[in-house]
TrEMBL record, chains A, B:
Pfam families: GST_C, GST_N. It catalyses: RX + glutathione = an S-substituted glutathione + a halide anion + H(+). Its EC number is 2.5.1.18. This is glutathione transferase. The gene is 11405846. It comes from Medicago truncatula (Barrel medic). Signal peptide: none annotated.
């Protein structure tokens, strides 16, 4: 029998890990296919011709891309262990915060990791801390999803991930006590623990990602 | 009795028009409250302290912001005349395309309208046309939603909107015959027609928006 669920990913990508955690929480068996950044397969390019990026979830031969879209697809397709709440207002809030995490927090976090100009890096760090303060204020339970991991927790996983690899204190305990505790709780959740890459794998991903961005920039500059 | 549904908006904002069309399609009565760009009300800032932007939908005193999040909230709260399809895979595709419209098409369209540097404007126009080609290829029915207006149509409304005000051929008929026809069909839909602002209102919005962006940039530069 053909594999029904396939995931095209790259080890260390926070967007791919999101999908892996969701599939694991739901108990869905899947085949993982590693894509090499900078040398993506024909299959990946056919499935995601617009963004040319991982993750792509393939279910019954039909591809879904963009991690937040994939998470919602998984939650609507397999109903067990819901990732989003059932109440429309709470669902709206979860979507709002996940979008906020991508647009405001992750972008600033990546900049504070990779930008070499010290002044620019400081600026990103300030932006990141301002954004994280909103999350700190919002967090009232063990997880954003309450007693269990939910959509916002999964979206926020880059916080403990980046922290592990960069030895960068994204959520220092004295500044963000609730997020700091959340970060540890999340990391120690059995499903998360099983999926999170090792420090070495994570380094490998960042290196490949930086090289692929540099190559794209060089190609654009030489046009 | 207190107003149950309120919409904080600014006439001419494509994001606000999205919400107005969705409410109208669903037949929901609501109170519209105009917000002046650059002089937002205390209420708006309290309801949307993070982005400080319209639209904000307030339902039973509870605020929802970010237009795509609001559209999904409306669709889940009032079930009549669905905006999103019921099938999970089709829902995922709709979410993918709406996100793509915001991230790739609208950003490029705004740049091709506002950037004064000719070379940069040309670059944005090229990016926009590349992105629109994907939409052209996707469109097979009267609307993206099939025979009726759906999530992707509502997300794409900036195309006829910008076209009307800027006399900018975003979707010239010889280049994008299907999108060109769609743009006219969409604009002539009775619900859309009733809600779309006049050319003068639209000009007013662009002027206020440009002024408010310039003011924010000046404030940032003088810090």
């Amino acid at each position: 029998m053909a594999t029904i669920v396939k995931l095209l990913g790259s080890v260390g990508s926070p967007f791919v890990i999101r999908v892996q955690i969701a599939l694991k929480l739901k108990g869905i068996e899947y085949k993982y296919v590693e894509e090499k950044l900078g040398h993506l397969s024909e299959t990946l390019l056919r499935y995601n011709p617009i963004y040319k990026m991982v993750p792509v979830l393939v279910h019954n031969e039909k591809p879904v891309s963009e991690s937040r879209v994939i998470l919602e697809y998984i939650d609507e397709t397999w109903k067990q262990n819901p990732i989003l709440p059932s109440d429309p207002y709470k669902r709206a809030l979860d979507r709002f915060w996940a979008k906020f995490l991508d647009e405001k927090c992750m972008a600033a976090a990546v900049k504070s990791l990779f930008i070499t100009d010290e002044k620019e890096r400081e600026k990103s760090r300030k932006e990141l801390f301002e954004a994280l303060q909103f999350l700190e204020n919002k967090l009232n339970d063990k997880f954003f999803g309450g007693e269990e991991i939910g959509f916002v927790d999964i979206a926020a996983l880059f916080i403990p991930l980046f922290q592990q690899v960069a030895e960068l204190q994204l959520v220092p305990g004295d500044k963000f006590p609730k997020l700091h505790k959340w970060s540890q709780e999340f990391y120690n959740h059995p499903v998360v623990k099983e999926i999170m890459p090792t420090k070495e794998q994570q380094f490998g991903y960042f290196k490949a990602r930086a090289a692929s961005i540099a190559a794209a920039n060089n190609a654009a500059a030489s046009k």
